[in-house]
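Researcher: Let's continue the batch. This sequence belongs to Cyclase family protein, and it's 330 residues. Same format as the previous ones, please.
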Amino acid sequence: MKRWTRRPEGSNWGDFGDDDQIGRLNLITAERRLAAVAEVREGIAFPLSIPLDFPKGEYAAGPRKPPQLSSTPLGHNQQVLPGFPDVVCDDYAVLYLQYSTQWDSFAHSGSLFDLDGTGEPVVCYYNGFRADVDILGDPSGSVPPHADALGIETIAQTSVQGRGVMVDLARAVGHDRVEVGYEQLVEIMEQQDVTVEPGDILCLHTGLTKIMLEAGENLTQELMATSCAVLDSRDDRLLQWITDSGVSAIAADNHAVESFSLDPGQASGNVLPLHAHCLFKQGIPLGELWYLNDLNQWLREHGRTRFLLTAPPLRLPGAVGSPVSGVATV
Ligand code: UVW
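Model: Same format as before. Here are the structure tokens for Cyclase family protein:
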């Protein structure tokens, strides 16, 4: 069913079908996955997440909180089963799904847009799925959040397995905050001999999660705000390159992949232009706070940029994001 008569400029809505919910992940075909598997030559695997109770310090004082583990009502906490030698533990977690290493689903970020040309913008998401119809929840919390469409489980069902391609932004620009736009990104990719093909999952190494791990409880807002590269998402040519490149997903080891400002004096248009471009217009999942250092170092030492990447989120119906413990194999 087509959900719009006008689609946003720069969007691909409808190109993968009127009911499509996986966007550019459609580009990871069996052929592309075989190309990814062909990158496995050594059999070495790299975990791509930080522990889910990181970052710590001032990050943990923010609106998203680290996981809290508790025993279940079963009381199975070191319980020796009567008459048996077996010991059982059982727990549950209060888990903020976008606290740590994560995927954003397309239900994470939408926009006001006049889908039908009536002059009445509505809150909508990728491919025209609508708030209150397909994605439930309200700002007061009186309607429980639930993504009936575009939830993270739709992404989980694709397995998120394909060819990862690493761009080492930290090597090119260092560890101070730098906004990397189109020209600089293309230059860095040329320097590092990185080629991106349709279906590839673009990974951006900035070094931020390593800094966060090392800072531990001493992590400050200032350190987060002044460290490591982000994409300059106000650069329209960068957004156009993302469209043209055919990347199926983008993952970075920084906070939001892009620069952003909530100061209306500084920002015009979207607060998060890359989120709007990728999640709302193009159906490109965004990964944040990944851990890419060890993989990046290995790739650099071995003159490689490509690897097999397997990174499905939790298959949690209705959720708009998910922790992810991705694995790269080289
Ligand atoms: C920000 O917090 C800015 O990004 P996200 O909500 O995608 O984590």
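Researcher: Any comment?
Model: Residues 7 and 117 are 10 Å apart (CA to CA).
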